[in-house]
């Protein structure tokens, strides 16, 4: 069986994390689409497993959380019972970012309900070394999820934005005009000046710009939820360990003390090789 060289695999990963679709990547690297899909799934598992083990006892002090909308297969309104059984429909990516280190310690792909909030917040709480200040938007499921995951050991506030009536158009792909925001202290004693979701919202913009699956009004959306999850694991690994943050001048993982050097894609592939050897 033919095996891709490390150079070819690195080129595939590099194309994917720079915003190319899988078919565009296959054309650019001159490999089959099945080859790209296979590597996507294998690298996604390796990246997810490594970050899951590495992101513990994190020294974060201020965390911001938000959710990013996308869809798999079709938008929710266009799904049927049969397609929903395949995982099609609206898909939300819950993200958290440390305001100081810019590290993204965890994410969760699923619905936007209380169950997803519960899973996401418990995952986040288990990765932090000490009490933090947390800011989210006004999404109601956060309230019970944060209380259940952190109890009284949290300084928690919500930034609730107030929107006006948007333009009366047949279809709209951006929120209505923001008329203002209200800061609501939910638990503990959060510093008022640090109640903000600006960092996580900017991070989510970067996610949309650097991940072809989140591009609106194209046919580049995910067709399978497992491919969607794998690409996110690769993207977040590249963001945390490989790409130098413009403000920090180092990677978020270095700033957070998770690693002492800037990773390159060949080191990411070394994780994949290690997993393959263990499986063999």
Q: Which key terms come to mind for this protein?
A:
single chain, six-stranded mixed sheet, alpha/beta, 6 strands
Explain the layout of strands and helices.
Elements: H1 6-17, H2 22-29, H3 33-54, E1 62-72, H4 81-85, E2 89-98, E3 107-110, H5 114-125, E4 133-136, H6 141-150, E5 155-163, E6 178-187, H7 198-210, H8 225-242, H9 252-255, H10 265-279
What percent of residues adopt helix (DSSP H or I)?
40-55%
**Major β-sheet strand ordering:** 3-2-1-4-5-6
Over all CA atoms, what is the radius of gyration? 19 Å
The shape is globular
Question: What's the order of the H and E elements?
Answer: HHHEHEEHEHEEHHHH
- Binned strand content: 15-25%
How many domains? The number is 1
CATH architectural label: 2-Layer Sandwich
Describe what this molecule looks like in 3D:
Helix content is 42%, strand content 17%. The protein has a single domain, classed as Nucleotidyltransferase, domain 5 (2-Layer Sandwich), CATH 3.30.420.10. It is globular, with a radius of gyration of 19 Å. The relative contact order is 0.17. The protein starts with 5 loop residues before the first helix and ends with a helix. The protein has 10 helices and 6 strands; from the N terminus they run αααβαββαβαββαααα. It has helices spanning 6-17, 22-29, 33-54, 81-85, 114-125, 141-150, 198-210, 225-242, 252-255, 265-279, and strands at residues 62-72, 89-98, 107-110, 133-136, 155-163, 178-187. It is α/β, with parallel strands linked by helices and 280 residues long. A 6-stranded mixed sheet has the order 3-2-1-4-5-6, sandwiched between helices.
């Amino acid at each position: 069986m033919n095996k891709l060289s490390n150079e070819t695999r690195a080129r595939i990963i590099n194309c994917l994390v720079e915003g190319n679709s899988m078919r565009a990547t296959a054309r650019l690297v001159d490999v089959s689409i099945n080859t790209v899909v296979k590597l996507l799934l294998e690298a996604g598992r390796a990246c997810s497993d490594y970050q899951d083990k590495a992101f513990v006892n994190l020294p974060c002090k201020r965390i911001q959380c938000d959710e990013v909308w996308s869809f798999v297969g079709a938008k929710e309104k266009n799904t049927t019972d049969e397609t929903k059984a395949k995982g099609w429909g609206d898909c939300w990516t819950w993200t958290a970012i440390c305001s100081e280190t810019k590290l993204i310690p965890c994410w969760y792909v699923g619905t936007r309900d209380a169950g997803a909030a519960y899973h996401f917040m418990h995952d986040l709480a288990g990765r932090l070394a000490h009490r933090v200040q947390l800011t989210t938007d006004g999404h109601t499921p956060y309230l019970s999820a944060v209380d259940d995951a952190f109890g009284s050991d949290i300084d928690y506030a919500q930034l609730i934005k107030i929107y006006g009536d948007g333009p009366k158009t047949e279809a709209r792909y951006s929120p209505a005009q923001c008329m203002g925001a209200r800061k609501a202290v939910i638990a503990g004693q959060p510093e008022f000046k640090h109640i903000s979701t600006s960092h996580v919202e900017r991070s989510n913009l970067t996610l949309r710009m650097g991940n072809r699956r989140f591009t609106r009004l194209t046919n580049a959306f995910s067709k399978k939820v497992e491919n969607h999850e794998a690409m996110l694991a690769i993207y977040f690994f590249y963001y945390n360990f490989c790409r130098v943050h413009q403000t920090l001048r180092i990677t978020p993982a270095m700033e957070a003390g998770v690693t002492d050097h800037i990773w390159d894609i060949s080191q990411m592939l070394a994780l994949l090789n290690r997993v393959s050897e263990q499986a063999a």
